[in-house]
Amino acid sequence: MIEPILRVTDLHVSFGAVPAVRGMSYELAAGEVLGIVGESGSGKSVAALAVMGLLPRGARASGSVRLRGTEILGATDKGLAAYRGKTISMVFQDPLSALTPVYRVGDQIAEAVRVHQRTGRGQAARRAVELLDLVGIPEPGRRALAFPHEYSGGMRQRAMIAMAIANDPDVIICDEPTTALDVTVQAQVLEVLKTARGETGAAIVMITHDLGVVAGFADRMLVMYAGRPVETGSVEDVYYRTRMPYTLGLLGSVPRLDRGGRLVPIEGHPPSPGALPPGCAFQPRCPMAVAACGTAEPVLEPVLEPVLEPVPESVGGPRHLAACFRAAEVRSPVRSENAPGEGRARPEPIVLGVDGCGVSRAVDAGGVGVRPESVVLGVDGCGVSRAVDADGVGVRPVPVVLEVDGLTRHYPVTKGTLLRRRVGTVRAVDGVTFDLREGETLGLVGESGCGKTTTLMEILRLVRPAAGRIAVLGRDTARVTAADRMAIRRDLQVVFQDPMASLDPRMTVHDIVAEPLRAHRMGRPGPRVRELLELVGLDPDHAARYPRELSGGQRQRVGIARALALEPRLVVLDEPVSALDVSIQAGVINLLDDLRSRLGLSYLIVAHDLAVVRHIADRVAVMYSGRIAEIGRADRIYAAPAHPYTEALLSAVPVPDPVVERSRRRILLDGDLPGPMGRPSGCRFRGRCPRFAVLGAGERDRCVAEEPEIRWSGGDQGAACHYASF
Amino acid sequence: MMAGFLLRRLINYVVLIAVATSLAYLLAAGTLDPRSNYQERNPRPPESVVDARLDDLNLNDKSPLFTRYLTWAAGVVRGDFGETVTGDSVNDDLRRRAGVTLRLMLTGLAVGSVTGVLVGACAAVRQYGVLDRVTTGLSFAVLAIPTVVLANMLVIGATWFNDLVGAKVLLVSGEVTPGLTGGWLARLLDRAQHLVLPTISLSLALAAVYSRYQRNLMLDVLGADFVRTAMAKGLRRRTALVKHALRTAVIPAVTYFAFTFGTLLVGTTFTEKIFGWHGLGEQLIDSIFTNDVNTVAAISCVAAFAVLVAALAADALHAALDPRVRAG
Amino acid sequence: MTLSREELARVSAGAGRLAVPSRGRLVAGRFLRSGQGRSGAALLALVFLLAFAGPLAGRWSHTDKDFLAFLQPPSALHWFGTLQTGADVYAVTLRGLQRSLVVGLLAAVLSTVLAALVGAFAGYFLGWTERTLMWVTDLLLVLPAFLILAVMSPLFSSGQWPLFVAMLALFLWMVTSKIVRGMTISLREREFVQAARFMGVPPVTIIFRHILPNLSSLLVVDATLNVSAAILTETSLSYFGFGIQPPDVSLGTLIADGTRTATYAPWTFWFAAGLLIVTVLAVNLIGDSLRDALDPERPG
Description:
The complex is a heterotrimer. Chain A is α/β, with parallel strands linked by helices.
C-alpha cells in the first residue's frame, strides 16, 4: 500500500480534565477528499487544529500525526512552521475574523508566499494577485490593495483559499469553510475549492456539519460523535449502507430540499464533553440501545457488508467501519432517489429498519407499512394536515391576520468615525407586499441582506412605516393608539433566532415565561407557566433554572413557551432553528408544526435555510435585495420555481444524498449579493441573472428599463420577473 | 458633508470649552476671596485703596458677580485672560509656564505609555509566567500609591541615595540649576539629572495602567482567528504575535489614551508642585492659595482645551492605525 | 420577580432534581478560589477591623495631646510614635483611615449609581435624551476636576464632609457612564430586550429589569475600583489642604503633615502612607478578581 500523505493515529486532545477528542484515526491518500461530519462539540474542529499544531493554550494532544511519514505532533514551533502553509494548509470557518484587519489582503497573501519561498517583495505581490485571480476575485490587481473589511464574506473566504494554496500544499484542511456564508456564495466557494484542488492536486479534509456538502464534495467520510469517530467509509457506504444508529438518526433528522414532511429528531441532546455517559456515548439517545451499550464503549470495527444489494462503486476501496455493538443489525434500505426536478411532491417514505430489534419505540409511522419489529427512524410527513388540499388547487383560508403592502424601510449610511459623513442610503426593504391568512405558515426566505429580518422588525414595531402599509389582525399600524398597540401585542408574538440571546441570562425560566403575563397584568402566572412548559415539552421543574443550564433546544422551547403565553393568534419567528444542531432542529420544527395545528396559530417564519422552510411552510416568499422575487405555495415553488433567482437559490442548496447531489444541475450565480446601495435600474437581479444573460437585446431592454412587478400564474404562485417561467 | 461633520464637532468643542471655563470662573469668583490677600499686609492698606486695586484687576467682590463675569468674558473673547493678583498679565505668565509643563508631560507620557504597552504585551504572551506575575504585582503596588506619596517617596529615596554615593546625582528641585555655568554637555546633564525623578513619578502610574490594559487587550487577541491564520501560513509564533497580534491589540490602547489624559494632567500638577517645576500645575495650586480668580479660569480653559485636543489626537491616531475607521 | 415561596417549594419538590448553583454562589466560589481575591478580601477585612475596632485598643484618642512627648518614635506608650503636636500617631492614623474609608465607599457607590443611571437612560432612549446627557458628561470630563474641587474647598469646612463626598462622586462617574451607554446601546439590540419591548414591557421597566442587571458585573467592578479612585483623589486633595478640613483628619492630611518630618521622623509619614497603600491595594485586588470571577466568558 502506498504511504498516505497524512496519517492520524489514535489522536487524543483534552482541555484540562475535559476530553475533546478521544481517539481519532484516519488516513488521507494523495488527492483524496475526506469529509468529517459532526455536530457542534463533537471534536471535529479541535482534531483539525491538533493536526496543524495550532491548539489553543491549555490543550494537550497525544497520539500520532504523520505528514508524509514524518511525525509532526508535538514538534517544535520552528519545525511546525516549516510545514504549515507549505505542505499542509488550512482554511478556517469565519472569514470575518480570520484575516488580520489592519493589513491589505494582497500583503497577507504575499506574506504566505514569502514565508516559504525566496522571492522579492514585488514578485510575491504579483503572485498574490495571480492567486486572487485564480480564486475568482474580480479585478485582482485593485482588490489586492483593499483591506479585509472591504471584502464581502465570500471574497474573504476566497482570499483565505488563495492563501492556503499559495505554496502548492499536499493537504488542505477546511474547517467549516462555508458555514458562515450564504447558500449561493457557498456554492461558489465550493467550486473555488474544486478549482484549487485541481490546481494543486492537494488532498482535502472537509470538516462540516452539513451532510449535503459532504455528499457532493467528499470521496470518503468520517462521522464524529462526542469526540470519537463512530462511522467511516466511502460516502456511498455511509449514506446508503449506514451501520451506526447516530448516523442514521442524523440522516433522518436533517431537513431536505427534495422532500417535505415530518422529520424524525434524535431524542435528547449531545452529551457535554465533561460528563459523558458510561459506555457508548450515544447510548442514552439511541433507540437501539441494549444493556451492553451502557457498559463498554464500542470501537470502530469493519462492517460485514450484507449481500442485500449490489455495491455500485468503491468496491475494494477504503473499508467501511462503524462503532456500534449492533452494527450488523442496522439496515438502511434506502436507495438513491431519482434526480430532482421531476416535481414529486410526496417522496417515498424513508424507512430505516432494524432486524430483530427488541426495542419498540416506533415513531408515528404515518400509515407506512413497517414490519412490527422494526424501528422506524425516518417517516413520511403526512402527520399534520395542511390547509392546502392534496391535488394542489390553492384554497386559502379567508381571515387575513397580516397584511403588508408596499412596505419600505431605508437607512442612511455613514462612513468613518473621525470624519463621519453620510455616503448613501440602504434600501433595506423596498416595496414588499404579502398577506398571511389564519392558520397559514408563510416562510420569508432569502440570503443575508435581502431585507427579510428588517421586514419582520418593521411589522413588530407596530408603527407607521416610512412608506406602505401594515395591518396586523385587521388594524392598520399607522392609526393605532397606544392602548390598541398593547392589545395587538397580545395577539402578535415573536420567537428569535438565538435562544441564548433571546432569554435574559439573569432571569429564571419561570420569570422569562411569566414576563408577558406580568406585562399584560394576567394575574398569578404560576399555573400558566407550568402549563406552557408542558405544552412545549419541557419538564415544569425547569422553571427554577437559568437559561445557561439548559441545552440549545430546551432554550428555544422556553422562547416558544414565552411567545405562546398570551395565546397569540400570529407568531413571528426569526430563524427559529438556525442556531441549533441538526439533531435538535428537527424536534423544534415538529413542535412548531404541532402547536400550529393544535392552537390554530398563523406563522410568519424568516429563514435563510430553504430546506427548513420546505418542512414547515405552506407558502414561501423569496426575497432578493429588498423586494419579493417570488411568492406562492411552497410545493409549487420548490417543484417549479418561476423566478431565475429562486431557481438558482434552490439549485445551490446541497442535498444530503451523494447520487442526487452529484447529478444535480447547479446554477452558479456570478458575483456577490449587490450592496443595498447603488441599485441598478430596472430589475435588480439582472446583473447576476442567468436568464438575462441568454436573452436577446430587445428582450433585455425591458429588464434594464422596467422594474418587474409580481405577476401571478393560475395557481397560487407569483414572480417578479418579466420572463418568469410558469 | 464631511466638512460639516468636522465643523459641528469643532463648534461643539468650542462651546464645551466656553461653558467649562465660564463655570470655573463663576465658581472661582464666587468662592475665592482676593480681598483677604490684603488683610494680612502690615500695615493693612485702607479699604478704598484695596477696592481701587481690586477694581483694576476686576476682582472686587463688591461689584456684582455677573458684571465681573461680563468684563472678564469680554476680555477672553479678545484673547485676554486678565491679570494675576500681582498685576501681571495672565497670558504672559501661562505662556512662559506652558513650555515647562509640555516638556514634563510629553516625556512622562512617552516613557509611561511605551513601557506600559511593551510590558503588558510581554506579560500576556507568557501569561502566568514570571514576568507576568512580577509586573502584575508591581503594577498593583504602583496603582495603590497616590502620586503625592510616590513623589515624596522618590524625594526621600533620592536624598538617601545621594547620601549613599556622596554626590548630588539625583536633583529634586526645579528644572535646571539656576546660574549653572559650563558647556552644553554640562547643561544637558544637569537637565537630565533634574528630569529623572519627575519623569518616574509621572510615568510609573501611567505605565502600570497601560500594562494592565495592554495585557488584557493582548490576551483577547492571542486566541484570535487571524493570529491562528498567520501561524497556519507558516509564521513562527513570535513573528505572528508581534506582527499580527500586537499590531492589532495596540489600537484600542490608543483610544484609551483619551481617557487617561485627565489623570495625566492631575499627575503633572502634583509632580510639578512637589519637584518645584514652575509649570502650569504648580501655578494651578498656587493660584488657589493666592485667590487668583483669573489664573484659575485661564488654567481651566487650558485644561479643557488640552483634554479635547487629546481626544482629537486619539481619534486621529486611531484612524491612522486602523483602516476600518479611516474615512475614505 | 422571583418565584413566590410556595411555587418555589412546589417546584423544588421535584424528586431527584439537581441542585442549581445560583450565579451569586458561582461568582463567590470563583472569587474565593483565586488567591488574589482571597488576599484582597482578607487585607480589606483587616483594614476595616483596624480602622473601626483598633481605636478601642489604643489608650489615646485622636484629640488627645501628650505634652510630655513631642515627635517621639514608636514606644510602648505610643505604638506608632507621636507628632510634633504631641498627638498619638496610632490614634490619629486610625481616625484618618476611618474617614478615608467612609469617604471612599460613599463616593464610589454614589458615582457608580450615577454612572449607571445616566449611561443606561442615554443608551436606551438615544435621541435628545442621549445628546443632552452625554453633553453634560463631556462637560464634566472637560472640567478640571481637581481644580474645581480645590476651588470649592472652603465650602467643605468642618462637618461638611458629606458635601465633599458628593462633589468627589460628581467627578468620578463620567468614563463609566460612557461605557455603560455603549453597552446599553448594544444590549438594547439584544434579542431578549427586543422580546420584552415587543411584549409591551415599558421602557423604564426594561432598563431596571433587563439592562441594569445585565451590566451588574461591570458596575460591581466599577464601584470597587471607584473606591480606590475616590480614596486616592481625597488623599491628594487633602494633601494640598483642599479636602478634609481640620480639625477632621484623613490619611491625606496626615501624609501631608508627615512629609515635612519624614526624613528625620519616618513614623510620621510611613504609617499613614503604608495603611493607605494597603487599603487601595486590597480594594484593587478585590476589583480585579471580581472582574475575573464575573466574566461570563470564563469557564467554571
